[in-house]
Amino acid sequence: MTTATLPNVTLTTQANVYFDGKCVSHSFTLADGTKKSVGVVLPATLTFNTGAAEIMECVGGGCEYKLAGSDEWKSSGPGERFSIPANSSFDIRVAEQYHYICHYG
Amino acid sequence: MTTATLPNVTLTTQANVYFDGKCVSHSFTLADGTKKSVGVVLPATLTFNTGAAEIMECVGGGCEYKLAGSDEWKSSGPGERFSIPANSSFDIRVAEQYHYICHYG
Q: Which PANTHER family match (chains A, B) (predicted)?
């Protein structure tokens, strides 16, 4: 079951553009002030660093990811989530599109 | 004065990806059901076709645009808007980034 829509959010209108546009996201906050973002990764292999811990929830397409310290690529598809610790990193590779919600903390 | 945030919207989590990612947007609806989107155009010269009429509101960066039937490129920066008729088209060229809200109708 994927999360298709998110009601009652405050949307930041400027996009976040990473890796020359290979990843584009828009940030938003919930009514309680919790910050999240929705985004898409286009065909690429990228390394993301985390500050806060993150949970990546797939809402369309898919990816393969490899957490720092692991040598195993795992796949993540619609409705699936994976977690990245704070102050860490992960590699992600996308063949077509990976649409996600990023939850922090 | 640019529109930095939009309160109380229902956000569609999947992105819209156009022109191999040269334009990426996320759709949302207002509490009254009005549909809009926020997006970004990356460095490119593109042609967009309209179904419904559109108003493009710049919320960051800038672009040059040329409406169908015109041979004049005009620039649009933060806080500025331009309108495109229904069933028409416009060319847009972006040197860095053009962040926008697309209003329909």
A: PYRIMIDINE/PURINE NUCLEOSIDE PHOSPHORYLASE, PYRIMIDINE_PURINE NUCLEOSIDE PHOSPHORYLASE
CATH number at residue A52: 2.60.120.10
Smallest Cβ–Cβ distance between A21 and the set B3, B21, B38 belongs to B21
Does residue A3 lie in a domain region? no
ipTM associated with this complex: 0.96
- Quick: pLDDT tens for B1-51: 799 999 999 999 999 999 999 999 999 999 999 999 999 999 999 999 999
Backbone angles phi, psi at A24, to 5 degrees: -130, 130
Both tokens of A10, joined, read 């405050």
Q: How many CA atoms lie within 13 A of A10 on its CB side?
A: 11
| Closest Cα in chain A to B8 | A8
Put simply, whether B17 touches A (Cβ < 8 Å) is yes
Q: How far apart, in Å, do the first and last CA atoms of chain A sit?
A: 22
What's the domain count of chain A?
A: 1
Please state the separation of Cα B36 from the chain's center in Å: 10
Collapsing DSSP states into helix, strand and coil, what is residue A77?
coil
Chain A CB contacts of B10 under 8 Å are 5-9
